[in-house]
Amino acid sequence: MLRTLEREVDEAFDQGFRAVRLTTDFSWVLGEPGRSDLSQMLGCEHQVGEAVSPSTMAMAICQVDKHACPQDELVALRNTHEVLVEVNPEFDDGILRIVRTFEPHGLRVEGELDAARHAVFAEKLSQVTCERRRIHLDFSRLGFIDLGGLNLLAHHATGLRSDDALVLDHLPPDVENVIDMVGWHRLPGLARGRERTSSGTGGLGS
Prior knowledge:
- This protein has 206 residues and is α/β, with parallel strands linked by helices.
- It is 36% helix and 24% strand.
- The chain folds into 2 domains: 2-79, no CATH class; 91-205, Transcription Regulator spoIIAA (2-Layer Sandwich).
- The strands form 2 sheets. Strands 3, 4, 5, 6, 7, 8, 9 and 10 form an 8-stranded mixed β-sheet that branches. A two-stranded parallel sheet has the order 1-2.
- Helix 1 packs parallel to helix 3 (39-52).
- It holds the Pfam family MEDS.
- This is STAS domain-containing protein.
- Residues 107-183 form the STAS domain.
């Protein structure tokens, strides 16, 4: 495989291409009989890196099935890479960033959700709700949400079918308290999801 990669890279540059992009999937290594650690996987990635790194115009993207290894091994693999590939955001204006998530299915909301961004959030929420019954909203990177944003969530939840739900993951404690105080937690279309870690930060604005 290494000889094939080296040959393809050389041929591409010989043909006048200005850059080469490679993608590899080493998930099969994780299923090899007798595997006891990540050394074989890391060894494969190191050799591919050696084949690609001599040229700054060649770049390789390493893929791995996250279901093929335990969480601690997945973290170790992630830490060996300087850059992680992520899907393009649905919206990003430098203040609010909305990213599609797939496991679980839904949206990750980052930054600040204020009145100026209610419309775009409502639009993205409506788009993703059309596809699945239970939609997870990840607020682990949320820094601020105003009462209008919470009202938007409640209004959206009341319009869902009886077997649908918005699952709110990693809510800041003060936001969760407001939801409880006004009784929105009783809405059938809203459900609590995973709890926010102690290191998370977030705020509620009027």
